[in-house]
Amino acid sequence: MNPIATILEKFPMMILDGAMATELERHGCNLNDSLWSAKVLMENPELIKRVHTEYFLAGADCAITASYQASVEGFVRLGMSQRDALLLIQASVQIAVQARDEFWKNSDGRLDRPKPIVAASVGPYGAYLADGSEYRGAYELSEEELIDFHRPRMKALIDAGADILACETIPCLSEARALVRLLEEFPGVYAWISFSAKDELHISDGTSITECAIWLDKKEQIAALGINCTSPRNIPRLVQEIRSCTMKPIVVYPNAGERYDPTTKTWYGASSREGYGNNALEWYESGARLIGGCCRTKPEDIKAIADWARK
């Protein structure tokens, strides 16, 4: 079953969660590491569960797992066995599922919202490199090499029981093609593809978003497509461009408006957080139907979306 279609048949939109790393840092974690938030899977899994719960309480209909920067190669590089690496990747799904199930069991607001789903994050190859490549896409890898890189993690996440895959912050169409080809090895499994974007018309490597949408439109296992981790100001036009090419649901979860320096691993510039809820309403009116937040967004931003979405 396509979980996004199931939710959108009954509800006008689906609210995603916000940044995982931002909340982990707020709780005292130091994420200046090649594994980023995935390192907390090893050190403090209960804190990840707590962050998932905070987003559910804020109104999120979907938890995106802490597996964005988790890869077999990344964990093995730290001395872990391949088997233990795969178990840790699967733990990211199990933690989110447990948080979801406990939240739903204790929730008294079921009539105005769907039961949340768990989306297993499949970050780009560039996230493994930990050098900002997910905002450039210049990998010099073939599609076959990208498929081989993504296969073990994708299989582990599916086997762990994720409801859907979130193939996110994809910087180039060639990696999206590789992920779709790999997805075909798992019949009946659905994913969304969301690209990182450099402006209102192009994804990070310069490919037009319309070219990406046209190619993905015919892919049956792609349940939604869109943009994440770009500036909120780029979203309305990007949504319009995607909508002109496909009737698939559009997913958007931009960052808070600041810019990321991959060298210093710091954020700089002005945030758009103050009006995040109002911005999200504009994205909805433009045609987006899955809306949440990426880097530097917080549960308060997700609550601001839920406040108007569930009136």
From TrEMBL:
Gene3D superfamilies, sorted: Homocysteine-binding-like domain (3.20.20.330)
InterPro entries: BHMT-like (IPR017226), HCY_dom (IPR003726), HCY_dom_sf (IPR036589), Hcy_S-methyltransferase (IPR051486)
Record's keyword terms, sorted: Metal-binding, Methyltransferase, Transferase, Zinc
Pfam family, one: S-methyl_trans
The UniProt record lists the keyword Zinc: yes
Hcy-binding domain boundaries: 2-309
PANTHER family according to UniProt: HOMOCYSTEINE S-METHYLTRANSFERASE-LIKE ISOFORM 1, ZGC:172121
Listed name of the protein: S-methylmethionine:homocysteine methyltransferase
The species this protein was found in: Brevibacillus brevis (strain 47 / JCM 6285 / NBRC 100599)
